[in-house]
Amino acid sequence: MNIILLGPPGAGKGTQAARLVDERNMVQLSTGDMLRAARTSGTEMGKIVAGVMDRGELVTDEIVIGLIREQLEKGGDHGGFIFDGFPRTLAQADALGALLNELGQSLDHVIELQVNDDVLVERILGRAAEAVAAGGTARADDNEESLKIRLMAYYKQTSPLIGYYHAKGQLQSVDGLASMDDVAASIAAVLG
Ligand code: ADP
Q1: Res. 94: pLDDT tops 90
Q2: Ligand 1: distance of its center to the CA of 102 in Å?
Q3: Active-site residue set
Q4: What confidence tens digit (pLDDT) does each residue in 60-86 have?
Q5: Overall average pLDDT of the 151-159 stretch
Q6: 85: CA distance to ligand 1 center in Å?
Q7: Whole-model pTM over 0.90
Q8: Is 105 exposed, middle or buried (0-12, 13-18, 19+ CB in 10 A)?
Q9: Cβ–ligand 1 contact at 92 (below 6 Å)
Q10: Which atom of ligand 1 is nearest to the CA of 9?
Q11: Residue of 31, 82, 94 with the most ligand 1 atoms within 8 Å of its CB, for mutation
């Protein structure tokens, strides 16, 4: 079973993905995590993505599709993939469809976590403050400036995917403002 978790930054995709990994032996494919790993690797690609990410803009489709392709081609024995933070553009959505098709796999559910902007800003700036309070450093893009750009990127480039998957009859929406356990229960109900 392969699923997409769709929603703006701070919607709770990562939190819910982690639970699905524990409970269903699924594999989380977070392009954000992959890109954060790439930027610390010191490679040429890492240097390019670092600046883009810190500004809150989207990395090119080519780069993220390449990262996803690598992971999908690895295969392995697990409960399926959770796409978290991917696809983020219509081109990425088409590429994912083609890739899964090529590998003889299906996309089983697209779950949208519905939230509102006030909560997102609160959650993300809260997450940054907590990281600093714990003696660490906040994500370079968890500041008000980048967050505005990330939200705009979401509305301009990613939210069209809601219509795209709705038209394909694959979209299911859950209330992302509920408690973590309630969101998990709603997702479990969709997955069966
Ligand atoms: P968020 O929690 O803000 O959604 P992510 O960890 O998913 O953050 O992504 C952080 C940043 O990594 C994005 O702002 C963007 O620069 C880059 N990124 C992640 N996934 C993608 C993608 N699928 N396409 C383009 N850029 C991406």
Answers
A1: yes
A2: 25
A3: 13, 88, 127, 139, 150
A4: 999 999 999 999 999 789 999 999 999
A5: 97
A6: 6
A7: yes
A8: middle
A9: yes
A10: 4
A11: 31
75 CA from centroid of ligand 1 (Å): 23
Calpha distance 138→107 (Å, rounded): 34
Tell whether the model's pLDDT for residue 33 goes beyond 90.
Answer: yes
Q: Report the b/e string of 59-97 with b at 16+ CB within 10 A.
A: bebebbbebbeeebeeeeeeebbbbbbbbbbeebbebbe
Look at residue 13 in the predicted model and tell me its pLDDT. Answer: 96
Distance (Å) of CA 182 to CA 64, 185, 186, 187, 191: 31, 5, 6, 9, 14
| pLDDT at position 53 | 96
Eight-state DSSP code of residue 154: I
Average pLDDT over residues 42-62: 94
